[in-house]
Amino acid sequence: MAGASDKARFYLEQSVPELHELERKKIFTKDEITSIAKKRSDFEHILNARGSKPADYARYAEYEMNLESLRKKRVHRMGVKANVHTGQRRIFFILDRGTRKFHGDLGLWMQAIEYARKEKAHKKLARVFTSVLRMHPTKPELWIYAARYSTDVQADITTARSYMQRGLRFCKTSKLLWLEYVKLEMIYIAKIAARQKILGLDGSRPEKQAQSTTDESESDTIALPDVTAEDVDPGLESSLEEVAVQNLTSTPVLTGAIPIAIFDATTKQFPNNSALGKRFFDMFAEFDRAPCQAKILQHVLASLLKSAPTALETRICEFQQPLVGLEATSAAYPTALGQSLASVKASMQQIPHLRAKLATAALLTLVPLMRTEGLDVAIEKVMAASLRKFVAALQPQNQSSTLEQSGDRLADVVDLLLAQGRREDARHLTAYGLKHWKSDRLLQASAAVGPL
């Protein structure tokens, strides 16, 4: 016990100069300094005694964080100069001691990571990442966190890829890590495509328009012509931008080669897993701005049709693929909608036992169309007829259904929409259903979704 007291006294003595400075500059009063010293003494004796727990280190670090926050506010209000790193070093020192003693406690590690990120101590955070990943290499969430930090804060895709690739060596069976890796690449592609568009390197740069001179006589200023780099060197813009466009469009990044390679590696790790393939498909479908989206989706669908052609997930992807990335009011939408409806109809005929599940998936996909303003009249008619067919298909095959039974089945779809957080879609589907099918369950669903 004497050794514990000696350790505690040693650590406390190191903070004496800091406390003297705080008192001398009147940042804290003498009574407050006494209270701080007593609180630190209590914590140090607890930490250095036998039986200390990770929560003790966490509470000590939290106390010091609150104290440092108060110190900063008073320094700012009083306008005095003070050492800005002393408190930060003390907090890191406490957390380092805790993670060394309890290296298996992820809570302490995350507290250290979050504090370093909050303080923008990037070098320290890099060292913490190195240590925690060395201690917990089989935790996929840590690799994902480190990779996201590298891209979101540091804008360093190379380091982020390194984290993901190293993580996959230890966590090959983590589906989440594979999905997050390909999502990381898709986010990067979307960012590059957006920057390309902003810079006018996507081929959509508007042509220069001649300035109108109708108001020149009324203006009291002299309009001077714009002088650009192209005017000084006519070949400059065309040569540099053409090279830039060619380089950007031909790189493996924008062509989707990297996400496709990751997806192919995933299918080898998890063969014949149509549910995982559907998760990849849904994730790729979210990136409308990625120029390679259609190519990647087609590749995923082809892979699913080859490995599991009769799986429910495969048929849902086949039905949804033509509609991805299209606005309901675009000229190409009617044709795409026709392809999708034909696809789901064929699937229902080919795989009768999936008929009800396919109809449910079709309803979940098409319900947002009901909320689209300015929809073509012909599409509205097709939608109305299709919805009635899909509701009828919810009933088991070769069984006739009453209006009340159809309403009950539709209420099940409303429950699915609510479970997915799609309250507006649920509200519109309920309103549509009450016009055609009456049932107690549908009325209950109407009460659950709120006023129509």
TrEMBL record:
Coiled coil: none
InterPro entries, sorted: HAT, TPR-like_helical_dom_sf, Utp6, UTP6_N
Keywords, comma-separated and alphabetical: Nucleus, Repeat, rRNA processing
Organism lineage string: Eukaryota, Fungi, Dikarya, Ascomycota, Pezizomycotina
Pfam families, per the entry: U3_assoc_6 (PF08640)
Matches recorded under Gene3D superfamilies: Tetratricopeptide repeat domain
Renumbered residue ranges of the record's region Disordered: 204-226
Name of the protein in its database record: U3 small nucleolar RNA-associated protein 6 N-terminal domain-containing protein
Domain U3 small nucleolar RNA-associated protein 6 N-terminal: 12-86
Protein species of origin: Cryomyces minteri
